[in-house]
């Protein structure tokens, strides 16, 4: 366990001009340092957890700012230590000077995420909750916010603890076999233990597999607009964004670079990407753009495949359909305002199996239908149909669950081979430790360093 005996300081709000900026102190000397910088103007007796107006002075005695201060004593503060906050005027110069005064009074500048790290080390929150705080601050969609809040409220920790408890129950059962192996007691047969392991394997696997779902929510969904040149990909991009983001011209091959922007659909943050139209060309710049668009479509979460409904299908359209094979996709029959040559069935005949929306990017007809179809597609991708609320969204959790699965499978194999219980319990213990690393009950300095370095200063 790390030994904490110093007091840290950092701005808790971002260093940009604002109405108010908060400077936070945490540690054994938080209150002493506060009183070296700040004096109340009117109050004689200060009570905890109440805001008081006062003056901040430089070490020289010069007046720096009028500010509110509050003291939150250990252990019931965010960090579990004495915490003091100064609510100053939000000028970046003021904040820097207040920090400098706090440093002169004996505080140390906090490292990124150090307040949250202290909260973890003092048992105020577990690791998944610390990570949820970072996710909460970075949340950029309704679903991302809901997922971070659920994790902050302990949904994931509780699930992981329940799984771990079941593992420990199995171990206790196996240990009883070791301890009483000479006595005539009726223990659960190996078959029964294997059955319990199977149930647990299914549970852990489900949580492991929720990673894609959780990541989709946390990082946003990447939707690539793909099609041959001139079908109206950039027009569709602009229509969805509601701004003239991409250049539109009647000249095929207008877009070359990958253009990105974000919108909100069905509670998800969607990163829309428009690129070069797919076709065979000798033109160097365009060829690079097409390669980029192809590769990008290959890794997108969803493909929006655009076709010109007023023109016959060509070889390039076939390539677009084949790019969608086995991938979440939506077909868009654009230019529906012109005399129509294509219907959804024309795409089906090429082997396109996903939903098809008819639309006019110029007039905007069909936009609502497309948004609805996209929202439904995203909900399916997210697995809302399954009704499972908990999802992991960090690689760290996924790796730990994969490790738990490995060890548990190895325990099962050992039991099937009638290995002694001593051998089996080693794997069961390994699986339990892998789960414990998620909540941080078993963890190393390195892991903590990696997690908290992602945080910004002052968090
Ligand atoms: N009539 C009609 N014209 C459209 C529609 N959508 C796009 N266009 C026109 O089609 C031409 C090409 O549109 P873009 O949006 O640049 O097409 P693109 O697929 O991005 O083309 P590239 O960037 O060259 O691959 C422009 O002249 C648009 O005005 C539509 O719904 N109806
Ligand atoms: Mg374009």
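-> sequence recovered:
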């Amino acid at each position: 366990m790390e030994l904490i005996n110093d007091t840290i300081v950092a701005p808790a709000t971002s260093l940009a001009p604002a109405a108010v900026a908060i400077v936070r102190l945490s540690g054994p000397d938080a209150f002493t340092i506060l009183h070296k910088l700040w004096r109340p103007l009117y109050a004689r007796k200060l009570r905890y957890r109440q805001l008081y107006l006062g003056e901040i002075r430089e070490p020289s005695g010069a007046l720096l700012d009028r500010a509110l201060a509050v003291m939150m004593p250990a252990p019931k503060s965010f960090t579990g230590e004495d915490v003091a906050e100064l609510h100053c005027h939000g000028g970046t110069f003021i904040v820097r000077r207040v920090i400098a005064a706090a440093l002169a009074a004996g505080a140390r500048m906090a490292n990124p995420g150090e307040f949250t790290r202290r909260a973890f080390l003092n048992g105020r929150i577990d690791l998944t909750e610390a990570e949820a705080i970072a996710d909460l601050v970075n949340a950029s969609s309704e679903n991302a916010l809901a997922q971070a809040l659920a994790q902050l409220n302990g949904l994931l920790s509780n699930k992981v603890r329940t799984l771990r408890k079941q593992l420990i129950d199995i171990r206790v059962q196996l240990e009883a076999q070791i301890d009483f192996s000479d006595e005539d007691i009726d223990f659960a047969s190996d078959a029964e233990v294997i059955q319990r392991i199977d149930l647990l394997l299914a549970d852990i696997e489900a949580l492991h597999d929720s990673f894609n779902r959780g990541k989709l929510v946390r990082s946003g969904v990447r939707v690539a607009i793909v099609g041959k040149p001139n079908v109206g990909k950039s027009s569709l991009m602009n229509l969805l964004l509601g701004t003239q983001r991409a250049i539109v011209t009647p000249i095929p091959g207008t877009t070359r670079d990958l253009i990105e922007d974000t919108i909100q659909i069905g509670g998800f943050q969607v990163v829309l990407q428009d690129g070069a139209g797919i076709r065979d060309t000798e033109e160097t710049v365009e060829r690079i753009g097409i390669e980029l668009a192809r590769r990008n479509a290959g890794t997108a979460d969803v493909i929006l495949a655009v076709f010109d409904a007023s023109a016959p299908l060509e070889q390039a359209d076939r390539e677009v359909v084949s790019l969608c094979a086995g991938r979440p996709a939506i077909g868009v029959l654009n230019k529906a305002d012109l005399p129509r040559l294509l219907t959804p069935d024309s795409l089906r005949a090429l082997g396109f199996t996903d939903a098809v929306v008819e639309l006019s990017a110029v007039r905007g007809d069909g936009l609502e239908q497309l948004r609805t179809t996209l929202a439904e597609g995203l909900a399916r991708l997210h697995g809302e149909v399954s009704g499972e609320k908990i999802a992991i969204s960090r690689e760290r959790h996924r790796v730990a669950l994969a490790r738990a699965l490995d060890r548990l499978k190895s325990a099962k194999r050992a039991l099937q081979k009638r290995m002694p219980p001593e051998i089996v319990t080693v794997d069961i213990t390994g699986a339990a430790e892998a789960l414990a690393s998620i909540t941080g009950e078993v963890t190393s300095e390195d892991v903590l360093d990696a997690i908290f370095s992602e945080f910004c200063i002052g968090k």
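Residues 233-234, 246, 254-255, 274 surround magnesium ion (ligand 2) (CB under 6 Å).
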